[in-house]
Write a structure and sequence with these properties.
Distance between the termini: 21 Å
Number of helices: 5
Radius of gyration: 14 Å
Number of strands: 0
Strand content: under 5%
Shape: globular
Largest sheet: none
Length: about 100
């Protein structure tokens, strides 16, 4: 059984915000999930996991594990949406979604 690391909660918040940013950008461009997934050469399932920020293997009491999207997939989605990678990443200045410290503690 996987052990939940202290930073998983922070990472979950971060990847959920990333997913929300992707979803909002997609909707603003009036595209469906399948259209973006196809343009990014991703399966619909992989794309949906990216938007949700939830991984595919539930762990822990709450049954959720944060997704760990590859840089390649996030870049492919950014290109499919016609935006930069920076446009999709959560705001680095926002205390609630700034990148978590993932170093070993």
């Amino acid at each position: 059984m996987s052990r939940k690391r202290p930073q998983d909660t922070d990472w979950l918040k971060y990847v959920r915000q990333l997913g929300k940013n992707i979803e909002e950008t997609r909707e603003a461009k009036h595209l469906s999930q399948i259209e973006v997934a196809n343009a990014a050469d991703l399966s619909r399932y992989t794309y949906q996991k990216l938007e949700s920020g939830i991984g595919s293997k539930p762990t822990g009491a709450k049954g959720t594990t944060p997704s760990n999207p590859s840089l390649r997939n996030v870049m492919a989605v950014a290109q499919a949406l016609g935006v930069t990678l920076a446009d999709l990443l959560p705001d680095m200045c926002d205390e609630g979604t700034k990148p978590p410290d993932l170093s070993a503690r």
